[in-house]
Amino acid sequence: MDQQALEDVDVIDLGQIYNGAYSSLMLSYLGADVTKVEPPFGEPLRSRVEEGEPAELVMLNSTKDGITLNLKEERGKELFKDLVRDADVLVENFATGTMEEFGLGYDTLSEVNPELIYAHGSGFGEDGPKSDRLAMDLIVQAESGVMDVTGNPEDPPTKTGIAPGDFLGGIHLAAGVMAALYQRERTGEGQFVEASMQDAVYPSLMSQLANYYDDSDTPPRTGNRHSSLAKAPYNAYEAEDGYVAILCTSDEHWESLCGAIDREELADDERFASNVGRVEHMETIDDAIEEWTREHSREEVGSVLSAAGVPCGSVQSVEEVIHDPHLERREMVVEIDHPTEGEIRVPGSPIRLSDSKAPDIEPSPTKGEDNVEVYRDRLGLSDDEIERLRSDGVI
Amino acid sequence: MDQQALEDVDVIDLGQIYNGAYSSLMLSYLGADVTKVEPPFGEPLRSRVEEGEPAELVMLNSTKDGITLNLKEERGKELFKDLVRDADVLVENFATGTMEEFGLGYDTLSEVNPELIYAHGSGFGEDGPKSDRLAMDLIVQAESGVMDVTGNPEDPPTKTGIAPGDFLGGIHLAAGVMAALYQRERTGEGQFVEASMQDAVYPSLMSQLANYYDDSDTPPRTGNRHSSLAKAPYNAYEAEDGYVAILCTSDEHWESLCGAIDREELADDERFASNVGRVEHMETIDDAIEEWTREHSREEVGSVLSAAGVPCGSVQSVEEVIHDPHLERREMVVEIDHPTEGEIRVPGSPIRLSDSKAPDIEPSPTKGEDNVEVYRDRLGLSDDEIERLRSDGVI
């Protein structure tokens, strides 16, 4: 196995910040040749640090080549078309309409290269009343319902700390690119692909969408409890050194849990024999469990309950997640030695294929790192021409 | 355009609850023929309602055919191999190891059909110390850091109301299937594909992963504020009829905001001229904005600030999201008339391709709805044989 699934797929990547960059990262990890194209002053993420490479950029652009190009300059537009002429895929997540303003919209580029798969990621998509809204992840979390369903019942709506819009949007876009690549095998034609952040988040509201149809009077936010308050136990419980999540999806789980925490009398209590009864006495159940978890470390809770077959997990801190032996073992977190940033742990690929080689994770490119290689070897420009492009601010 | 990207791709779908079902839903929406295979007593989601079809199942299984099959019975295993023999893809999200227990692991099935793409979704993946952990979404949220970074600084870790593990895991798995389909065009061989929920969630912690490397002393949870408290304004603000999210990513946004809320003096205040200054005076800034938002409806805030070019969004309730005119217009929410459940709004596809027809959204199958069609027309069984399978509890 020394092949990769997307070997020889050539991707021009205008992806920036999280959404587009993640989309092309996944293509890159699957074997595509991805060339990240930044404006001469760098993509927006670079403004987050005064010098060096921002950690986000390092983590989202491994294995890619990097060049600079000014799409506002006529010469820049020409060079861009030259790049696209032989490419398979273009990924971009500018605000909807930006590429058309550059004169580089899909209509134009598909004439340059009819086999091109043009992928556009955005907050709200190509059409519809919100299509021209600015859409950072927080805005998408508000509009898509994520905030309304997160947090405690007595508190205001709360954002989730992760960036679901960027990442759900990004991976749906990458999936769309691969669908289009597969279709192109049959048709020989490229096409326009899009995925919006709000669209991509929508299905993940599934439990609450179902609550809506069940006419339940569940509050929109249930803290750490089940989203329709329909299961008990189901919560995060305080342990000696943090919190643990525990839930029971069957009466057997409940009986095992009672045994594991030395409270057999609870398993014998008829009030708690069924999930319906336990839901009625949720507070009592939660108190009994927390009385036990408070006396144990997260690790003790995990090993006792796992041995008993009860679903449980430690609430891990970000630092613990970055060093999680499980993620390390799966090469989902890979420590690289970055030329300017030193040792940094970057994400591996969540997509694993038995017959497609795992990516060799090369450090993200510095701004314009591969300018000479790409403009000379790929577009056939002379060193003098490249130097002139540089001094003219085109690259 | 009457083609679909995955036309003629035949998928056998053991996907259940959210993760596997969503993965195959995306394949189905892209044109694959998906046959959902449930045990004779139905997949676990069905136990959520006493009669009829659970809304979650309806929403995640549109356009699929549905059959029943008991994989614990010898005859069931044989029939399953017959189904897999001519299939392109198998999707399953049983606990890791379950298919091997059935005698239907990848090693066995790849002998039956070497071109088979076998896709396994799970909480923690195929290998590593946590691979045999039970993994519902809450457990994954705990272990992956989502809970630690969600909620108010003074509160315990909080889950996000959406199910990031199930849906990020599911769409990464679908993306892996498409990568393998593309590779198979070259090699003629199938392969084993996997995506775990914890792996798939990891990159979405991006802001916090970067905070870790920035050595910032930001608390793990920042409520609705920026995850590294590095931007102001950035928050959810109370309006007359709910909440609105507002943020400024540039000084221009800030100046426009001050103008829009009739507080030009704030724009002139040197303390607030730069983001660094605004961050220092975050409370003052937030109070000033909220003083204004409290006097307006979410819609008024949205139209005033959007006109001024300031990023903002309404915190929408689930009911509002289900009826969001934008999502309706984009056919991301589609009302269908389900034979038993009546009118219900199901998700459309977040993946849009210009030359692959949008899915015709057919209602999800009832349990075993297509048994006769599949077992007779596809496997060539007689009506008598099908009847016997039914009475023997095989289907």
From TrEMBL, chains A, B:
Keyword Transferase recorded: yes
Superkingdom of source: Archaea
Region annotated Disordered, chain positions: 342-376
GO molecular function: transferase activity
Compositional bias segments (type: Basic and acidic residues): 367-376
Keywords from the named record: Transferase
PANTHER family: SUCCINATE--HYDROXYMETHYLGLUTARATE COA-TRANSFERASE
Protein name: CaiB/BaiF CoA transferase family protein
Native organism: Halalkalicoccus tibetensis
Taxonomic lineage from the root: Archaea, Methanobacteriati, Methanobacteriota, Stenosarchaea group, Halobacteria
